[in-house]
Specification:
Length: about 400
Amino acid sequence: MTRTLDIEQLRAQTPGCAISTHFNHSGSSLPSDTVLAAVTEHLQRESLYGPMEAAANAAGLIDEARADAAGLIGAAPAEIAFSSSGSAAWGLAFAALPPLVEGDRILVGRQEWGGNLSTMQAAAKRAGARIETIPVNEDGSVDANALAAMIDDRVRLVALTWLPANGGLINDAAAIGRVTRAAGIPYFIDAAQALGQLPVDVSAIGCDMLKGSGRKFLRGPRGAAILYLRKAFLKTLEPAYLDVLSSTWGEDGPNVRTDAQRFETSEKPIALLLGLGAALKQARSLGVDAIRRRIRELSGQLRGQLAAIPGVAIHDLGTEKSGLVSFTVAGIAPQALRGKLAEKRITIAANGIPYTPLDMMARGLNEIARASVSYLNTTDEIDRLCDNVAALARQAA
């Protein structure tokens, strides 16, 4: 049965919808009353009973959040770790890989997130290894066939940013996974923009690691993220550091946990994780398929209306597109456009080369404006954004 989202009710349960027209859900979305209450009520319990005692009483809810995170992506709870951010999660997993040596190769998609790319490049430089970019298809997506032709016994990792931060492209993550699985090469996915926007099944994709932020399309709080590590792959990883949660002390020294919590520490932002848990329950209750349908419809409308404005250029790649809409307005720098719209309480983002350096430089782009759509947005909000962009474009002409 096809689910229908009650947008009016969902907006009423989201205080931010009454304050501004928000089109930066790919940066941070607007949390619901339920998420806000989960965070603030736990902070109140900490003030009354003490943080350690409040955390102990919340242990069952943290377990529920881990189970919901696993259920959202088709994993087992033992394969899920929580982290403070997507970048921290990605870095923890990368640091646990066997050290690179001279001549090793890492293959990356052209849209790789700048933080991941910098981490890999620094490690490769120290070891004398190389970072190589996988060619793209005509639509700009990473070419799985080209990847297959690049595989040899020196390849140590394949990394893919599934939905890049600089536009609407959706890479074929499963096609890349079929190549890496056949070759037995570790496969990392940055799913920061995918979680809460697209259906995710890690088994079907074939990835060994996947990370995603809670603050984006899941509508959780900042400071909480999800790290998935495939069970068999997890055994091959050596965490860069341990603490009393990730290992216990025995007669022969530390005994490292066998589940994904070997990448967690005993000190956690419990309130934020409870907020993430509330956001995960809401996403699963609404149904990611229903969320995806509405985002596809609204973002398609937004692209069409923006493209019809004289002086506006759309910069999205891909055949099937996400809710991230990238564009520029002739005569107005993206950051300036962002500021002018903010004066009208319309929120967008502006992304430069550091976010997706390989793709931006390959396409000769220095900066783009980005309006990202959630199921919370309405057609009236799209009209408001486009009317204001059109007015600014006329002034700049």
